[in-house]
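[step 3/7] inverse_fold.run input=structure_tokens len=91
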């Protein structure tokens, strides 16, 4: 598994906790901002190098919290989609 976070300190903390919980298996880390295409490309290349092949599963938990966000039911569409229209991201 390759753990990725934009914050290197949080990444190392999460890596330590993950390694405590997983008895076997390989867990590595890579600092990256997944809103930047070049960093996503570097992350994928590093995963392929570390694990000797392509990616089998990808789980993205990155996001942006708008100050007016509520929940999936009560958030207005202008808030829900606004962040995507304001930013250009091809990741």
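[step 3/7] decode complete -> sequence:
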């Amino acid at each position: 598994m390759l753990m990725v976070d934009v914050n290197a300190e949080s990444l190392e903390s999460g890596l330590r906790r993950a390694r405590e919980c997983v008895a076997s298996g390989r867990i590595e880390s890579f600092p990256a901002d997944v809103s930047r295409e070049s960093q996503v490309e570097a992350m994928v290349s590093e995963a392929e190098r570390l694990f000797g092949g392509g990616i089998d599963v990808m789980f993205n938990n990155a996001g942006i919290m708008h100050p007016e966000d509520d929940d999936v039911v009560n958030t207005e569409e202008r808030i829900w989609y606004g962040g995507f229209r304001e930013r250009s991201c091809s990741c």
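[step 4/7] annotate
Helices lie at 8-21, 37-51, 77-86.
Confidence is low (pLDDT under 50) at residues 85-91.
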